[in-house]
């Protein structure tokens, strides 16, 4: 990797980490509509968005579908779904296809929270980009969408990631490509 390319990749990596922290921080202390003492977590929003997206794509949304959508193992998805249910954003309903299964649906509060969060994000982005000229916004939107598509098409090598972390924990020198 050339020096300039390495610097660019480092800047992008650091920016993505900062953005994740910024978006996550907004949800740390917010309260859900159902239980006034229960916080709405980023994981709740992720599940709500997954259930919403899947409900438009398939007949019934299951925990397994949520696991695939958010790229976690089924046991983690089950815990995340249970948290979203406890927050009053998702509920289980009888399957219309198989009486032995349940499907996941958004509650009215789940729909309202999803819409409110999406509206907030878009308003916030509008404020962030307010002093950008229309051409800059258009280029940024296209490049960010391209980056997202490329990220989906080029999944991370999780085995290599796990190996690098294990080596770092063992005190082995970290090898870079």
TrEMBL record:
**GO biological-process terms attached to the record:** response to stress
Classification via InterPro entries: HTH_MarR-typ, MarR/SlyA-like, WH-like_DNA-bd_sf, WH_DNA-bd_sf
Segments spanning the bilayer are: none
- SMART domains, sorted: HTH_MARR (SM00347)
Domain HTH marR-type per the UniProt entry, residue ranges: 9-149
Q: Can you name one GO molecular function term for this protein? A: DNA binding
What keywords tag this UniProt record?
DNA-binding
Which interval of the chain is the signal sequence? Answer: none
Pfam families found in the cross-reference section: MarR_2 (PF12802)
* PANTHER family reported for this sequence: MARR-FAMILY TRANSCRIPTIONAL REGULATOR (PTHR33164:SF57), TRANSCRIPTIONAL REGULATOR, MARR FAMILY (PTHR33164)
Q: What is this protein called?
A: DNA-binding MarR family transcriptional regulator
């Amino acid at each position: 990797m050339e020096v300039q390319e390495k610097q660019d990749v480092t800047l992008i990596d650091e920016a993505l980490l900062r953005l994740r922290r910024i978006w996550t921080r907004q949800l740390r202390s917010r309260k859900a509509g159902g239980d006034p003492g229960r916080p709405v977590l980023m994981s709740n929003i992720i599940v709500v968005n997954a259930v919403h997206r899947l409900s438009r794509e398939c007949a019934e949304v299951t925990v397994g579908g949520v696991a695939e959508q958010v790229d976690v193992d089924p046991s983690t998805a089950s815990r995340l779904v249970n948290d979203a249910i406890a927050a009053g954003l998702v509920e289980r309903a009888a399957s219309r296809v198989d009486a032995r299964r349940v499907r996941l649906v958004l509650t009215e509060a789940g729909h309202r929270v999803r819409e409110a969060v999406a509206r907030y994000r878009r308003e916030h982005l509008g404020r962030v980009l307010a002093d950008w000229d229309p051409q800059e916004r258009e280029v940024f939107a296209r490049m960010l969408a391209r980056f997202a598509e490329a990220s989906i098409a080029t999944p991370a090598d999780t085995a290599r990631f796990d190996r690098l972390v294990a080596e770092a924990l063992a005190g082995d020198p970290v090898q870079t490509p």
